[in-house]
Every structure is written in structure tokens, then in C-alpha cells.
Amino acid sequence: MNNIKLYRHPLSGHSHRAQLLLSLLGLSAELVDVDLAAGEHKQAAFLARNGFGQVPVLEDGDSTIADSNAILVYLAERYDAGNTWLPADPALAAEVQRFLSTAAGQVASGPAAARLVNVFGAALDHQRAIDVAHNVLGVLESHLDGRDWLVGNQPTIADVANYAYIAHAPEGDVSLDNYPQVRAWLQRIAALPGFVPMQATAVGLAA
Ligand SMILES: N[C@@H](CCC(=O)N[C@@H](CS)C(=O)NCC(=O)O)C(=O)O
């Protein structure tokens, strides 16, 4: 019996990817909501878990893991006996890492940032974020042509890492209409046993 806690925010796609992998792996975890609006993530108790003051953070026994992609790697290494979510093959593992970097790079500064503007009122360049989003979506659309998953022939943490902010891109005024391969890929992820969605938002919560 594990004793896993996930410190998260229900509208955070970074948090959702950790929650999603926990669920896909069939692991139970206590979800601890961090009150970002009240600045709880910048208080000493939370900063002791993650000095960057960001969700998500996972606690598993004596281990504390901050950063969503680090959490995905940890959970896959620790709990996926079959090594399917993070393949051991060096070339496939490198390809997974490439798409974790995409999630932390172009997806964070594209669709995630565009959604931050609409949902949380973030003072970011909305048009630039939308442009970055369409660039990464175009690359993913080509990449997914003829493939079911981002890496190899089964789902990996690369798919989990990129799911939420792409699925919720329309909340940032980033339409997925021109990306049928991306939409089919999102549907394949949503059909996986154990899939849990991220809460949708009415745009303009900050208003
Ligand atoms: N690289 C981090 C980014 C996490 C992140 O940006 N978290 C946001 C919520 S989605 C957050 O906590 N923002 C509050 C802040 O940065 O002050 C990760 O992958 O976990």
C-alpha cells in the first residue's frame, strides 16, 4: 500500500499530467489542492517542497519530487514494471525525453501560455503564445501522420506530458480545427483505461 500525495491545482495542466499517470498506472493518491490564488505556493511550507513555488509536487513516502515531467519519470521508473510508459531502449527513451522537452518548451510557451492569459489573466503576449501554439501543433500534426502515439507504438509519458495543454488549447483561443491527427491522438489518450480528464474552465475566471 503506497502513501502518495499530489500537491496540485485542479486547473493546472502540469498537475493534471501527474494525476493522469497516477490514474493510468492504477495508483491511488491523495490530491492536495494548493490555493494558488491565495499565494499558498509561495509560503514556507510549500517552498520547502519546491523552492520554485510551483505545483505539482509529489510525495511518496520519504521521496519528494517537484516538476511534472520529473514526476512522470519517477512514477514510470518506480511503478511501471513493464517499462512501457518509459521504454528502456535508448533510442525510444531519448525520443520520450525529446517530447518531455517539447511539453516543457513549446507547449508551455504556446498553448499553455495562451490559456493562462484567458483563464488566469496572465500578463503575457497572447498573440505570441497563439503563434507558438500553432507552430508546435503543426509539427505534431505532421509527426502524428501515420502514428498512433508520439513515440513507438504504444502510449508513453511523452503522450501524458503533452495531453492536457493541447486538449485545452481552445481555452486559450487556439483552435484545433486544422489538426485532425492531433485531435485523433487526443481521443486515443482519452480512451485509455484509467484516463481522467482535467476540469474544463469557463474562460475568464480572472475577470
Ligand atoms: N516546470 C514546472 C512548471 C509548473 C508550473 O508552471 N506550475 C504552475 C501551475 S500550472 C504554477 O505553479 N504556477 C505558479 C507560479 O509559477 O507562481 C513543471 O513542469 O512542474
Description:
It is built from eight helices and four strands, in the order βαβαββαααααα. The chain is α+β, with helices and mostly antiparallel strands. α1 links the parallel β1 and β2. The protein starts with a strand and ends in a 17-residue tail after the last helix. The mean pLDDT is 96. The structure holds glutathione. The site of glutathione has 13 residues, from α3.
Could you spell the SSE succession in H and E letters? EHEHEEHHHHHH
- The poorly predicted ranges are none
Bound molecules: glutathione
Instruction: Say how many strands there are.
Output: 4
Radius of gyration based on Cα positions? 16 Å
Helix content: 40-55%
Q: Biggest β-sheet: count, sense, barrel? A: 4 strands, mixed
Taken as a percent bin, the fraction of beta residues is: 5-15%
Q: What's the total helix number?
A: 8
Structural class: alpha+beta
- What is the topology, as strand order, of the major beta sheet? 2-1-3-4
Shape: globular
Q: Average pLDDT, to the nearest integer?
A: 96
The first-to-last residue Cα distance is 43 Å
Q: What would you say about this model in short?
A:
With 207 residues, this protein is an alpha+beta fold.
